[in-house]
Amino acid sequence: MAAIGVAAALVVTTALLIVTRIRTDHPDDASSGTTRDSGWQRVMAGLTESGESTVTVARQAFSLTFEQLPGVDVPSGSRDDIQSGSAALQMMIAHWDELTTAEQSIVLNYLPSDDPTVTESGDSIVPATEGALGPPSAPGAPGAKMVGFAARTGPRSVAGRAPSEAAGPDEATKQRIESRVAALRTSLGALAGGFLTGVVEVSYNTHDVVVGSAAYTLAHAPGQLVTHPTPTTATLSGTSGAYSGCFLAFNPFGWQTTGANLDFIIAHELYHCFEAMFIGDLDLYYDKATAPPWVIEGGANWAAAQVVPTSSYPAPFWQRYLLIPSTPLFQQTYDAIGFWNHLREVSPIDTWTELRSALGRSSADALAQTDAGSDAFLDSSASSLFRKPQFGPSWQTDGPTMSALRFTPEEVTITAGTRLSRSALPLAKALLAASITTDIVVIVSVGHVTMHNAAHDEANFGQLVYCVRDEGCECPPGSVNTAASPAALGGRDLAFGITGNDRAAAVALGGISLDEWCRKARPPISKRPGASGANSSGNTAGGGDSLCHQIVERLGVDGLLNNPTMSPADIQACVTEILASGGFAPGP
Asked: Which helix (H) or strand (E) holds 512?
């Protein structure tokens, strides 16, 4: 993805350098009436900047999704947005060697064995009969078979509840589910870029789980004893770590679901099998660095939505995507369905191909396989969340299974003396609605900012200066300012979509009265990106001797925004200092 060119984007003749602070209070969350307090999102906030899990994240995710692990502190908050157990299970496998023996034993309680009588550890097996569909007769043919779970060796406690076992589904339910597995396996194969090979093993987990998650998936290698899920086991047993099949377990909530929502659950879990098959090497599929959740889980949600477009099951994940734009992409999981959906909307590249190309790669490499670095994507990613098609195509998003929710942007008023800025962190988004009540407004963009009002549509525009007065902004004779009146704004309401790519993006607005404007010898001027950073007097924007000015001169405004030695408060102090030195001190 291209870096933001900042120095050229910010230039004013009197060093009006309006930069921004990094927002930490997430005003978008408050204005939309949503919350970031779900337990799952609190856990996912622990992912690294590159989207990798840690063993702490893995333990917490498993404790949220399956059962409480001993000694693990689980964040508080709603658990309604936990879709399945696949993400937590994959994280635990990725950190298998870091788990205690007791933790490994608990994980194995949720995995099957191919041995009909005994597990590798000697535990007895709950018998299971082969499903009606049987194994496929040829590679890629639809099919499913039943496998059993290891019997529990002792009691356990789930979130303070007594241990319990659910009764399994009746035979009619099993037949219906196995039939839908076969049908959706074919439907996905027709779109995904290849038909799924190997046997899909279907089972029904009767062990009680913490929440109503629907199902979970485990891809495995040939001959691999699934009771020890790491690819290393396959090597020890004399087989390779290459994908050969997939295990799909339904929790009680899953097998009790019907209709389109059941189909969505199945399609989501089946696409995990496709992901493992496309990657091929299970060492990559179960590696925290090459299986980031925004690709694995977000991609599976998007794929499921393409074949089951009428399901309401993904509504909680659309809610997070549509209403909390401040979550960086690499910290998203199921809600990354919106990222892949927006690629489908704006990219000329087939999204199925982009998704397949992203599999088995680190977050940065996966993103580079997509068209998400294009202007078309970045200039519409945030603005599309306004969902106002009357503004133009960049201001609307829609897609299969998407809810009707619409984000309510922060609303601000720009008066004479206002100096206001808002930013989006790297790979995150922010939305702003501004009402202009002053005579003249200066608007500065850093990176991918899209602007709309009744008369103007701009993207990645650098610096713009507009007259807001209906009578125009010509200065009276004898004024210090002899420049022509700025162009008319043509409407006092402005909408801004701010999209960070690999660096922060920002928009800043300054309000100026006509009296102040006419007393300036060198007022701000409109200047597009790519123009020189020097003003008419030959001085670079942000000139000065202070540390703040030195940072801006040496690194550009993005260097200030992303300076690791400065807190958000320090950055905001720099903003005030630079504005004051430019002669545009904020009003009282």
From this structure: strand 505-512
Query: What's the rounded Cα separation, in Å, for the pair 65 and 70?
Result: 14
Alpha helices in 478-546 (DSSP H): 514-518
Whether residue 208 has pLDDT greater than 90: no
Cβ atoms of 219 and 273 closer than 8 Å:
yes
- Cα separation, 481 vs 488, whole angstroms: 18
Going by C-alpha positions, the residue among 448, 429, 449, 450 that lies closest to residue 324 is 429
Q: What is the pLDDT of residues 95-153, one digit of tens each?
A: 988 999 889 888 887 876 544 443 333 333 333 322 223 333 333 333 333 344 444 43
The DSSP code sequence of 317-380 is HHHHHHH-TTS-GGG-SGGGHHHHHHHHHH-SS-HHHHHHHHTTS-HHHHHHTSSTTSHHHHTT
**Is residue 273 classed as helix, strand or coil in its secondary structure?**
helix
Helices marked H in 362-495: 363-368, 375-378
Tell me the three-class secondary structure of 30-89, residue by residue.
HHHCCCCCCHHHHHHCCCCCCCCCCHHHHHHHHHHHCCCCCCCCCCCCCCCCCCCCHHHH
What CA–CA distances, in Å, run from 250 to 227, 253, 270? 17, 8, 12
Rounded distance between C-alpha atoms, residue 65 and residue 131, angstroms:
27
Q: For the chain, percent helix, then strand, then coil, each to nearest 5? A: 35, 15, 50
Q: How far apart are CA 294 and CA 583, in angstroms?
A: 45
Domain segments of the chain as ranges = 7-26+417-581, 34-154+167-378
Give just the sign of the alpha carbon dihedral 507, 390, 318, 277. Answer: negative
Pick the residue with more confidence: 462 or 428?
Answer: 428
Q: What phi and psi, each to the nearest 5 degrees, are found at residue 510?
A: -130, 130
Q: 159-186: per-residue pLDDT in tens? A: 333 345 667 899 999 999 999 999 999 9
pTM of the model: 0.81
Strands 457-459 and 144-146: unpaired
pLDDT score of 539: 28
- Which residues lie closer than 8 Å to 390 by C-beta, 6 or more apart? none
As a whole number of angstroms, the distance between CA 480 and CA 516 comes to 10
Q: Left (φ > 0), alpha (ψ -120 to 50) or beta: where does 252 sit?
A: alpha
Structure tokens at 586: 């904020």
CA distances from 557 to 4, 8, 136, 426 (A): 10, 10, 59, 14
DSSP string, 173-231: HHHHHHHHHHHHHHHHHHHHTSPPPS-EEEEE--B--SS---EEEEEE-TT--TTS-SH
SS3 call for 253: helix
